[in-house]
């Protein structure tokens, strides 16, 4: 029996991953390397839908790859590559775009959300067709399962529809991917506004933990996190979002279940909890940062790793595309 194939991507749109990216996505990727045939991709083509700076994109693509390695992805145990290095992604995206209804694409809520403020007039067609490129990413690798957050569920549903549509019109070609929705327990909230998810687009810059920041900066942000009224340390997302978020972070980093932590903090104050969360974050982030910076010192080795990943990805992608083209009469 071959191992189930998984595909997942992350955008190189920030200088550093934040704690939410790691606990909500990257850590799961690391854990799936052995039992799955995993394809992990820095999706740079997805990062240009809203305008970008080329030098920054190049830098952030490398920094993203270095961080994935620093987090524990092993190029011998998974296929790690950069999306734009494998031209088949854009080739298949065009074909799938011709199978996607305009109305169907118009129903994607992320596009609506992202254009809500500025209006659709100034949005790019690339932002509009982003989910079609994502479908190409997934379907090219005959993916069995896609580890994604809840926010990507609708896009994944489109990928499934496109696979089924192609298969029924032109003959069985694509595997239909299953969602593998990552547990909501791994969702990390903003330290200053713990009702909003931690995000690089957060309105309060001190609300996020960037993993490449100086450890003392991160520790300070944890110590300044918003807590809730009252003094009890209990898990209650509704009434104690700040404390609940800190408990979630501590639980994720120490692998101690939340109820066990709640017991351990009975009768103790927020200060103790914050200090322990800060220690746990620094204990993880300091070596992560060191490893990332060391990898970035040697861009040639990094390029080699990514070139090998792209080569391996391309053999799978090219085979799928050949079959697709054959089915379509090219
Ligand atoms: P951002 O929201 O900062 O723009 P992305 O959308 O680029 O982050 O997310 C990259 C990956 O990290 C996705 O798989 C996403 O589900 C995950 N992720 C992002 N923010 C969080 C969070 N606060 N908690 C858990 N997972 C998150
Ligand atoms: Na996002």
Automatic annotation (TrEMBL):
Lineage top rank: taxon: Bacteria
Gene Ontology annotations of biological process type: tryptophanyl-tRNA aminoacylation
EC annotation from Swiss-Prot or TrEMBL: 6.1.1.2
Molecular function GO terms recorded: ATP binding; tryptophan-tRNA ligase activity
Catalytic activity: tRNA(Trp) + L-tryptophan + ATP = L-tryptophyl-tRNA(Trp) + AMP + diphosphate + H(+)
Major localization listed first in the record, in broad terms: cytoplasm
CDD domains the UniProt entry points to: TrpRS_core
Residues annotated to bind ATP: 11-13, 20-21, 149-151, 188, 197-201
Record flagged with keyword Chloroplast: no
Residue interval(s) of motif 'KMSKS' region: 197-201
Subcellular location: Cytoplasm
Positions contributing to L-tryptophan binding: 137
Gene3D superfamilies: HUPs, Tyrosyl-Transfer RNA Synthetase
GO cellular component, one term: cytosol
UniProtKB keywords: Aminoacyl-tRNA synthetase, ATP-binding, Cytoplasm, Ligase, Nucleotide-binding, Protein biosynthesis
InterPro entries assigned: aa-tRNA-synth_I_CS, aa-tRNA-synth_Ic, Rossmann-like_a/b/a_fold, Trp-tRNA-ligase, Trp-tRNA-ligase_bac-type, Trp-tRNA_synthetase
Family: Belongs to the class-I aminoacyl-tRNA synthetase family.
Record HAMAP family: Trp_tRNA_synth_B
Assembly information from the UniProt record: Homodimer.
Purpose: Catalyzes the attachment of tryptophan to tRNA(Trp).
Official protein name in the record: Tryptophan--tRNA ligase
Native species: Actinopolymorpha singaporensis
Phylogenetic lineage: Bacteria, Bacillati, Actinomycetota, Actinomycetes, Propionibacteriales
């Amino acid at each position: 029996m071959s191992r189930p194939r998984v595909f997942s991507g992350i955008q190189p749109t920030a200088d550093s991953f934040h704690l939410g990216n790691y606990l909500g996505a990257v850590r799961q990727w690391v854990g799936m390397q052995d039992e799955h045939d995993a394809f992990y991709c820095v999706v740079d083509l997805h990062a240009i839908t809203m305008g970008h700076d080329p030098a920054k994109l190049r830098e952030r693509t490398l920094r993203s790859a270095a961080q994935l390695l620093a987090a524990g992805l092993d190029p011998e145990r998974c296929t790690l590559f950069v999306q734009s290095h494998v031209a088949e992604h854009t080739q298949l995206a065009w074909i799938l775009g011709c199978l996607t209804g305009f109305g169907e694409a118009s129903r994607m809520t992320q596009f609506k959300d992202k254009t809500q403020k500025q209006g659709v007039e100034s949005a790019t067609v690339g932002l509009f067709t982003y989910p079609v490129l994502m479908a190409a990413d997934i379907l090219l690798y005959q993916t069995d399962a896609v580890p994604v957050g809840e926010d990507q569920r609708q896009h994944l549903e489109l990928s499934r529809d496109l696979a089924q549509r192609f298969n029924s019109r032109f003959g069985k070609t694509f595997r239909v991917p299953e969602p593998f929705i990552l547990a909501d327990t791994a969702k990390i909230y903003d330290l200053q506004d713990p009702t909003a998810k931690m995000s690089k687009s957060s309105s309060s810059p001190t609300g996020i933990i960037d993993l490449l920041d100086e450890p003392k900066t991160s520790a300070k942000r944890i110590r300044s996190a918003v807590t809730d009224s009252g003094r009890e340390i209990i898990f209650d997302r509704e009434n104690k979002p700040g404390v609940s978020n800190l408990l979630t972070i501590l639980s994720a980093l120490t692998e101690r279940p939340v109820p066990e932590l709640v017991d351990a903090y009975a009768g103790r104050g927020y200060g103790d909890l914050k200090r322990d969360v800060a220690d746990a974050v620094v204990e993880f982030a300091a070596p992560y940062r060191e490893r990332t910076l060391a990898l970035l010192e040697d861009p040639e080795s990094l390029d080699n790793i990514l070139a090998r990943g792209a080569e391996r990805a391309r053999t799978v992608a090219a085979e799928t595309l050949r079959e697709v083209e054959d089915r379509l009469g090219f």
